[in-house]
Specification:
The chain is mainly β and 232 residues long. The strands form 8 sheets. It has a 5-stranded mixed sheet with strand order 13-19-18-15-16, with no helix packed on it. Strands 20-10-22-23 form a 4-stranded antiparallel sheet, with no helix packed on it. A 4-stranded mixed sheet has the order 12-11-14-17, with no helix packed on it. The chain has one helix spanning 55-58, and strands at 3-4, 7-14, 17-24, 28-29, 32-39, 49-50, 61-62, 68-69, 75-76, 79-82, 92-98, 101-103, 106-109, 113-119, 125-131, 136-143, 149-154, 158-163, 171-176, 180-183, 189-195, 198-206, 210-218, 223-229.
């Protein structure tokens, strides 16, 4: 949120003596924000995924996180973006191989962000990145042991899908975009700040449930509240 502080000087004459008094004018907001929740009628995924290799490291199964639904029906891990906006640049993010999963599973960044890939697991992992699902390989890095880190600058806009070639249940997503965006929390809630007043298209994407959108208005100095449903 942008804040402008305006300071003025008041000159007061008392008994022929000029006294200078400083005071702060009221703060002025130049943007608005969007506060909302993405809901769904879908049932959250609970059945664990069976582990086919490296059970001594990964265990016999791992959680299925493809659909996360909160107690109030909110959809977690959905990407929310606002068409026609310009996001503040993100300098660096990290994707960690931990428990034979990518963490975080879903992220939104701006072009030019430095991606840092690391691992905590005592096994070989690869981070194989594809653009637009599985059509085009962007890079494929192997981390054979914990503690190593590899960096890659993300310059090409689009939605990246991450996969580990050694452990096929490992999935992750990174959206690279100039637009203001975020990822919903476990209850489907999100907030987009520093939005210039105007009319926008709010876009929602989820790895399993697809996409939806809604037009809304952002008003100066106010919070625009929105609830949007994304169903099977």
């Amino acid at each position: 949120m942008s804040w402008t502080h305006i300071y003025q000087i008041a000159i007061i004459f008392i008994g022929g003596v000029a006294l200078i008094s400083g005071f702060q004018a009221p703060e002025t907001r130049t943007t608005g924000k969007i506060v909302g929740q993405i809901t769904t009628s879908a049932v959250g995924t609970h059945a664990p995924l069976l582990v086919s290799t490296d059970q001594d490291v990964c265990g016999k199964n791992v959680p299925d996180e493809s659909i996360i639904v909160g107690d109030t029906g909110g959809l977690g891990q959905a990407i929310v973006t606002l068409s026609g906006t310009k996001a503040v640049s993100v300098k660096e993010i990290t994707v960690t191989n931990i428990g034979c999963r990518f963490a975080p599973r879903v992220q939104v960044v701006t072009p030019g962000t430095l991606l840092r890939i690391t691992s905590h697991d005592q096994t070989l992992h690869t981070t194989h990145a594809y653009l637009d699902k599985w059509n085009k390989t962007l890079f494929n890095f192997a981390i054979p042991k914990p503690g190593l880190a590899i960096t890659r600058r993300l310059v090409e806009p689009g939605r990246m899908s991450l996969k580990c070639d050694a452990h096929p249940w490992m999935i992750g997503y990174i959206l690279v975009t100039d637009e203001i965006g975020t990822v919903t929390d476990r209850d489907g809630r999100f907030e987009l700040i520093d939005v210039i007043p105007g009319t926008y298209k709010l876009n929602v994407w989820h790895e399993t449930l697809g996409i939806t959108s809604k037009q809304l208005n952002v008003t100066l100095g106010e919070s625009s509240r929105v609830t949007l449903s994304l169903n099977p």
